[in-house]
Amino acid sequence: MSRSWLVCFSALLVCLVALTQALPLQEDQDEKSVPGGRIVGGYVTDIAQVPYQISLRYKGITTPQNAYRHRCGGSIVSSTEILTAAHCIIGTVASQYKVIAGSNYQTGTDGVITNVKDIYMHEEYFSGAAYNNDIAILVVDPPLPLNNFTIKAIKLASEQPLEGAVSKISGWGTTSPGGYSSNLLLAVDVPIVSHDDCNLDYENFGDETYYITPAMLCAGKRGVGGADACQGDSGGPLVVRDELHGVVSWGNSCALATHPGVYANVANLRPWIDAIRAIIAES
Ligand code: ARG
């Protein structure tokens, strides 16, 4: 074989090898275009699809102004009221927060920013069971400019959701347990799990303070896994048929087939929510 043939042939080989390598590479790149991969089993959504979602940003008392970073999710209940989780805000004060509405991102200044004026945390948070009554209301000022498009209040559920009903959860939390969080807003659809099934699943988890109380609600793909909320999604919404049924609260790791995600049960906590809202309306 002449020398030029050899060069030509090896060039062809290199080319072929490069081609076969290029295909899996392409897939990798697609995955990277979603920062941090995928929410556990979810998809990139748009704030217009979940216009009640907010990002709760937090800074330490002594950290400089405007060093606020995403800490939790939350849901818009009215132009001045946000529902979030008690475990998100416990031990902090209102001035440590900003609320961002109408944005797809967990960082940056997209959307509308407002301040937290007051925090109402459930007085019986953690009483009777771990994470029991994991709910809080934030009063924001100035009021959010509800626009019926990217910034919108969600109706609160007053009855328990049906077992198996499809719920939508959303947030900027980690895309795997201990993994990276997403800068883009993600969502995932998970079925509601019955109280009894959830209690069975958590029977041997943690100490005796961990069980599923009536103030909790569970959702997840039992026996399948792969779809769940995770760290940083806390305080955010679980919505069934356009009503807020849950607030992201806790779980054993994330997206396990053996353990559903656990949520504060909005319908069960309605007496507390309504009482606090009446106090807010009067003040
Ligand atoms: N506690 C977490 C947070 O602060 C939320 C955990 C939810 N876990 C789950 N497997 N659904 O963001």
Description:
- The structure is a single chain.
- This protein has two domains: 51-153, Thrombin, subunit H, CATH 2.40.10; 155-268, Thrombin, subunit H (Beta Barrel).
- With 283 residues, it is α+β, with helices and mostly antiparallel strands.
- The protein starts with a helix and ends with a helix.
- The chain has helices spanning 3-32, 86-89, 195-201, 266-282; strands at 43-44, 53-58, 69-78, 81-84, 97-101, 112-121, 136-141, 155-156, 166-171, 186-193, 216-219, 237-240, 243-250, 261-265.
- A hairpin with a 2-residue loop joins strand 12 (237-240) and strand 13 (243-250).
- Helix content is 20%, strand content 28%.
- Strands 9-10-11-14-13-12 form a six-stranded antiparallel β-barrel. It has a six-stranded antiparallel barrel with strand order 2-3-4-7-6-5.
- The protein is globular, with a radius of gyration of 22 Å.
- It is built from four helices and 14 strands.
- The protein binds arginine.
